[in-house]
Each structure stands twice: as C-alpha cells, then as structure tokens.
Amino acid sequence: MKQKLLVIRFSSIGDILLTAPVICELKEAGHHITFLVKSRFKSTALLLHGIDVVLCWEESSKQILHVGSAGFDRIIDLQGTAQSKRFTKKLGIPTDTFKKPYARRALLIATKDQRYALTPVVDRYAEAAGVALKTKEIKFNIKVQTQWMDRIVIVIGGSKSGKRLVNQQWLEIISSLPQREVVLLGGPDDQKTALEIISTFPECMDATHTSVEEGMAVIQEAKLVISGDTGFMHAAALIGVPLISLWGATHPSLGFGPWPARANQRCIITQASSPQSKHGKVPFYAANPILKLDTKEIQNAIAEILQDRTKL
Asked: Do the domains spanning 4-129 and 152-310 agree at the CATH topology level?
C-alpha cells in the first residue's frame, strides 16, 4: 500500500547520501517521501532522487508535531539517536527505527578484531526501512554542469585529522600523475591545502570553492576519484566512478566502506592499527594512522585502475 512517509536523517553529507539506495526503493514502491534533515545539510538532501519534500528540523519539527498522524502514515527513523526517538515517540505514528550497533562497534574499535566487523550501513538502513535493495545504479539530482570532465579528482578534505592525508602524502601521490588532469576537491577549509599543493604542482586545478552539488558534478564526470573517508567518496561509490578510498583512523569494517562494492574500486588501508574511532578522531595518546598509508601502494592502485579503464 502506498503511504506518506517521513524519513529522518539529520546529518551528515555522507550519511545522507548513503540513504539514496533506500530512497530509490521506497519511491519505486510508489510512496510519497518527506525527508527531515538539519538545515545545514538541506542542500545535500535535495540531491536525493525520489524525495518529494525536504523539511528542516529547526524550522519544521514543531509543525510536524502539530500535524501528527494527519500528515504521515509511517516514519522511517534512519538517525536512530535519542533525539530522533523522542521526537517520533511524541508523534505516535508507526515507526521503524535504525538500530545503532553501539556495543559491537565499541568492541571492534577496542580489539580491531574483524569478527566484530559491521554490516554495511546501507544494508542496515534497508533493513530498518523494510526494503530489499535491487538498484545498484544510483542517480542524484545534479542540475549543474562542471567544466572539469574526465579528470583525476583528489578529495583533499576530511572531517577529522584521522581521515585527512598531510600535504607531503598528496605531493608524493600527485608526483606520479599528469598534473593538468588533477582536480583538487574539498570545502572552503581545504583551500589553503589546495594552494600549497598547487605551489608545487601549478597545473593542478583548485575546486575547493565548489558547493556540494558542484562537487558531485565533478565526481560524476571523473575518470578516477581518490579520497579518504568522506562524503564525496561515498558519492563516487554510489555513482559508480572508479575509486581509490584511503583509510586511516576509520576502517571499512565500521560499515561505511564504499557501497556497493565494484570491480573499479580499491581500498588502501593504513599499515597502523585501525580502526581507532568511528568518526576519524585520533586519540591524544596515539599517532595518526593516516600517516602510515603506503603511497607506493596508492600509486600502484592508480596505475592499475587507469590501465583497466583504457581497455574498456
């Protein structure tokens, strides 16, 4: 039966993009989908193909409570936090809630034992929503065009230090690439890093001034994306662009690796002990594991993917 759904996922860029496969299945079933998000991530939610309405938590939560069951038949809470649970309880509408694996994740981080590896979060979102994932080719509402076509896109940002390579690592990686094909992607906070790289490799292009949608357009047209554990990494995996993902304080076993797994992807994982944290924060007593990435291994993966691409 077709329903009016309220899907909740407050943040962040990567987590919101990873709801895309579930949104596709819900829309395919004919449901009307309202997506509730924190205001700073509204532009990301608008990129999800199949969303009918995007509401911001700060502006609309009281209105939703006022409308209650008259507005929605069912809630799918993909946030699964105390805040979202309190909110859905007040609404009194049938709710399916994403369950966060706190204990298992803590064991994985504490022991590094892969027996505690988590199921990919996309599959857990699907389980919470009650859908079977059939669609592997994910489309986004990208309406802008990019000037950078068929380039090697390097995502130099990262929300935490354990996800960000230092300049020297990027310089070693870029030294093996044709500079004129390299686009440096990130946010405004990454512009200083981009300019420092460009001072050594002046033919590289700076795209750290772009919006999320503009960055997604660059990703969509890339010949290869090289990225740490970032939202743009998830975008590349979902779209199906050739991808090399780089892992330091976080690890694919936390459930946030590239989804879906494809033949044109490579995961390069630090030689240090990992994972250290869910979000990439490095404990004060530990060395940053991202510094133990083998740049030679990364260069070999780049050569392998680009060579495979020329055979297509």
From this structure: yes
